[in-house]
Every structure is written in C-alpha cells, then in structure tokens.
Amino acid sequence: MCLELCDAKSGNPRYLMHIVDSPKKSNNLKFAVFIVPHGRENEWMFGTAEGRAKLAENAGSSRLLVVHLYRDQTYESLKAIQDELSSKVMEIAPSKLPPNSKIPFLSVGEDLGSRRELKRGHSQWSGEFVVEDIHPPGTSKLRRLIFLANQNVIQSEAKLVTVREKKKKKGNIKETVTIDHSYLSCEHHLAMVGGLGLVMYPAELLLIGLGGGPLATYIHRYFPQATLTAVDLDPAMVEVAREWFEFSPDSRLKAEVADGRDYISSTAKEGKKYSAIMFDVDSKDSSVGMSCPPRAFVERSFLDVVASCLTTGGVLILNLVCRDEALKKSILQDVRAVFSSVLCQQIPDEVNCILFCSMSSSEFDKKWEKGLQDVNNSLKKLQNSKSNVIDLAEFKTNVKML
C-alpha cells in the first residue's frame, strides 16, 4: 500500500510513501524510514514492489516506509526531511511500537542528490512531460525525459559530461555541459545494437520510435556505413530530441513525423527495402498487458508487410515488453509464422526481450553470435575502449532460438 503526503499550503503531493511489511523474528528493527534520493526512484530496488520487499529484508525492518520525493517540490537536506516527517510517520507505525520510540531514517549516504527541470511541455500523444537533469548520489549526471502520466518509466536517458576549455586570450576556463553519446542507459538498446551485426553494409536502417533520440544518435555515430531513418508519431519528441539530447539529422540520419505503421505500409507500396527495421515504440494503451510495442505492430497481417520491406537477409529487431504470458505466447507464434528464424534475447532483471527475426533459415544463431562479436570489436575500436562494450557472455547466455 502507498500513501501521498501533501503540502499543507499548496495541497500538492510532497511525499509518496510505500509501506512494506516484512515481519520476521530475526529483524533488528520494528519500524524504519528509507528516503530515496533524487533520480533513483525508478531503480528496481526502490521503484518496484519486489525491490522494496528486498530493501526491507536488507534493512532488517518489520515495517519499512520507503519515501519518494516529488520532482516539483524543494527539499533542503535529509535532516530537514527527517524533521518534517518524524511526527507524521508515527501515525502509520506498527501498533505495538512504544509512542516515544526513536525511528531510524535511512538512505543512500548523506546526499539527497539534485534534480533540475529544464523543460516542461505537453504532447498530444503522451500528455505532460519533463526534461530534467539529475545527479543521483555517487553517479554521473544524467538527463532524462519523463512522461508524467507514467513517471516510473524513463523514456530516454543520456549521460552528461563537462568539457573544460581554456580560452587563449584571457586564460579563463570555460566549462560546457554536453552529452556523452558513447553511453546507452538501457541494456535492451545495447542488445538491439548488437543485432545490427546481422546486417550487410552499407545499409539502410529504419527505427520506429525516437523518444529523446539516444539510440538513433548512437547508431548514427558508431555505424558509419549505415543510413538511418527514425520515425516518431509525436512532433514534440522530435523537438525534444533536437533541443535537449543533441539529436542532429544530416545526410545519414533523418527524422520523420508519422505513424510507424502507416510509414511502413507506404514503404511497402513503394517497394522500398531496408536491411534492418527496428521497433522501439511504446504503447499508450494501458488496458493491454503489453507496453511495447503497440499491439497493432505485431499483428500477423502487419508482420507480413514488415517482412516485405526487408532486403534479402534483412532483419526485424523488436523490443517486446509483455507481462501477459498468454498474449506473449500468441505474439511469438505469429512472429514465428511469418519469419523463418527468430532469436529471443531476454534482458536480465527486465521484462524486455529482444526478438531478432529473419526470413533466412541458414544458421541464424551462429550468424547472430559472429555479428555480435563483430559489433563489439567495432565499438571497442571506435570508443577507444580496452574492455568489451557488450557483455558477450551474458548476451549469449540469455538468448535462445524459438
């Protein structure tokens, strides 16, 4: 269960408090409060029921109150939050707790982190959204795109770096904050990139779903022999990508504002072919147990159209996020009915699985493994990295032929 504690003056929500009961004889604490720092509320440990249960177990508390901070509120320090909440939390303390008990307040270190809102806007398709810079304790500064209707999901994330430049004449140091385009925050995005090792180059690629544009920019930067067209239904997202995430279209990178299904259907009528088509688009229909892609994108009839838009040896790379097991089974059956070869890569600790689909039936799994190795070697070279960019062992462990 969770409760909202609102500001006494404005009435706006100030704290979101999740109550986690984990009664065990071995617990050292009857009751404790855990303050989640700015920017970490989306992490598994703090943003899911399973994670919070694990947090209560680790804390050894029979009842743990996990407190999230709202993005449009101001908080001075952990001490100030403790002073503000001390009396209120006693109202939801265990009934057998003595009234004068001292309640321990826990967190990740002493730093609350920081959050700075850069833009708040409205999308016709996604409602209110914010672009914000956050600095969780002990981590890099990040820029995020969040849809306020679904705040538990980070739509796009980029790592920020500070570039120091010395001016020649005055000797002053100029600091510029920019985006580290070698960083992909999502494991499923890295998996999709790995699948591009199945493609013959030079290649034309199609990405359905742009968001803030980190995946599109990464492909553009590290696959110099590829031309990429990114399609998004929402013109507001194209503007956000350009203004806040350094998404810069050029002769090899193009952005189209269109319905992804309509765009592919038009492509099929024109006879245009792509070496790879990538689906990374979320669904706005919360009544279906699938958040990515929209159900219409994986209907059998539309998958036939997608297949007709692929070159010989071309591949469909699909980010599937489905919690309804019956629906997922049905989708996988339709995908297998259209494509001769389908590999499924499960992303550890996430619902996401990435499907690599091809009309070719000749040793597809071996081609994927070699392609993955080739992509990793290329990324290491281009990023001047001594270590693997892709965790090859983990990726291979979590992939299977359907």
UniProtKB/TrEMBL annotation:
Sorted UniProt keywords: Methyltransferase, Polyamine biosynthesis, Transferase
One of the protein's GO biological processes: methylation
Domain of life: Eukaryota
Molecular function per GO: methyltransferase activity
Statement: the UniProt record of this protein carries the keyword Transferase: yes
Record carries keyword Ubl conjugation: no
Protein name: Methyltransferase-like protein 13
Annotated gene: METTL13_1
